[in-house]
Amino acid sequence: xxxxxxxxxxxxxxxxxxxxxxxxxxxxxxxxxxxxxxxxxxxxxxxxxxxxxxxxxxxxxxxxxxxxxxxxxxxxxxxxxxxxxxxxxxxxxxxxxxxxxxxxxxxxxxxxxxxxxxxxxxxxxxxxxxxxxxxxxxxxxxxxxxxxxxxxxxxxxxxxxxxxxxxxxxxxxxxxxxxxxxxxxxxxxxxxxxxxxxxxxxxxxxxxxxxxxxxxxxxxxxxxxxxxxxxxxxxxxxxxxxxxxxxxxxxxxxxxxxxxxxxxxxxxxxxxxxxxxxxxxxxxxxxxxxxxx
Length: 293
Description:
- The chain is mostly helical.
- It has helices at about 1-45, 55-60, 65-95, 105-115, 120-130, 135-145, 155-180, 185-190, 195-225, 230-235, 240-250, 255-290.
- It has a single domain (about 60-290), classed as MetI-like fold.
- Helix 2 (about 55-60) packs across helix 12 and helix 9 runs antiparallel to helix 12.
- The longest helix is centred in the first third of the chain and has 42 residues, at about 1-45.
């Protein structure tokens, strides 16, 4: 009887947990999965209505504008992620291991920076590097020229600079958390044995930081793939990414089927990158367990 009572109690607990899971699952389905399903459905629906076909996908995939937007999205996202990883790693190293006045305040400011909207950072860059910004104003004051030479924010390089500026703290935050767990005794021992700073970073600090680098880099890559505000606020007319293409087709061209097709491609690309990230993390963790064994 005791075994049967225990099984009945476990069954009731399992049923209770399922019931508690229903409200959040229902809310998720209503607010996210259902609209997503409508987007996918619309991507297979012709503009004239009636039935479902792949005409929208064939038309979008055959468009040179879509292929250019896809390439622009990928290379800007990859370039921004690489820049964020290099800059974020260097800045996190300085904040975590180089004592200087204001280091703790700077670390706290990074947490605040994460809450800033992306367009605010872009607006700040426009005040500095825009055609009427501080850099050009200083140039005209010194040389007396009518206009300054700084005019790159409206190009892909301006978008790249804005995204690196905005997304670098998203790499620094997990790195700073990882660096706080590094045993400083290892660094002291390596230094006492004659190891120089680059070797200490490469052999002691970097292995501890790799999981955090992977997590931060993956997050930044996915966010860059879906970034809309930075590209829009820089005014880079020749820079068309997939989110900008969705906006153009839906709002400017009223091509809702084409917009949904591009949106589905963007979603598939983001989910594929997330799946790749999970595989890499699982492989790294398995390798670490084997090495520890």
